Amino acid sequence: MLRLANLNRQMSMKLVVVTVLMFGFGYALVPAYRAICELTGINVVTSKSEYGIRAFGAKSVKENTQIQTDRIVTIEFDSNVKGLLRFKPMQRYLEVHPGEITQIVYEVVNEQDRVVVAQAIPSYAPKVATQYFTKLECFCFQQQTLQPKESRQMPVMFVIDKDLPKDVKTITLSYTFFEIQGATPVSRNEVKPSRI
Predict the structure, then answer these.
(1) N or C: which end of the chain has fewer CB within 10 A?
(2) Cβ-based neighbours of 114, under 8 Å, separated by 6 or more
(3) Is 150 within 8 Å of 175 (Cβ atoms)?
(4) What is the 8-class DSSP label of residue 57?
């Protein structure tokens, strides 16, 4: 019995030591990770604003060296609808620097008494700008299911490539929102809240 008590005590001490070591290792990981990132030049622990992201009047904290600050391109935003939805950009145009990550928001409203499934298709003018306009996040990547009377604000995050030809000073991003399905009215008890 005494031998069993000694074994239990030894095992308990070992478990306490292992627990303390594991906690210390976990606690030391964050500063060690930051130090490794700084040494290697990988800077993945900064906030979005440090990359020069501009979102509706938010100012970037640090200047991104990949942004062409000596050049401005005007981006115009347009919207069209095929179906009974209301759809528009929250801002008609923005002035951006090539290399700068920018965000714009579009709003869609389903004014009908039924669920509507729709998809946005983008187009660009001039056509040459298509290959220099990169969308990082866009509601056009997937179909949107809108509940009756639902309104939704949907972001588009994009960057203009620095290699955009110098003679292109204005780009128009136009979306056409197509209703895909939704001819079946939905009763009140079938309507479920949707995620934005």
Answers:
(1) N
(2) 148, 182, 183, 184, 185, 186
(3) no
(4) T
Fold of 49-190: Ctag/Cox11 (Pfam 04442) (2.60.370)
How many angstroms separate the CA atoms of 160 and 101, rounded?
A: 8
Q: Say if residues 161 and 134 touch (Cβ distance below 8 Å).
A: yes
Residues across the chain: 196
Residue 72 above 70 pLDDT?
A: yes
Mapped onto helix, strand or coil, the DSSP state of residue 162 is coil
Distance CA(190)–CA(177), nearest Å, equals: 25
Distance between CA atoms of 40 and 62, rounded to whole angstroms?
Answer: 20
pLDDT attached to residue 145: 92
Give 88's strand partners: 107
On whether the CB atoms of residues 177 and 82 are closer than 8 A, the answer is: yes
pLDDT in tens, 1-10: 777 788 888 8
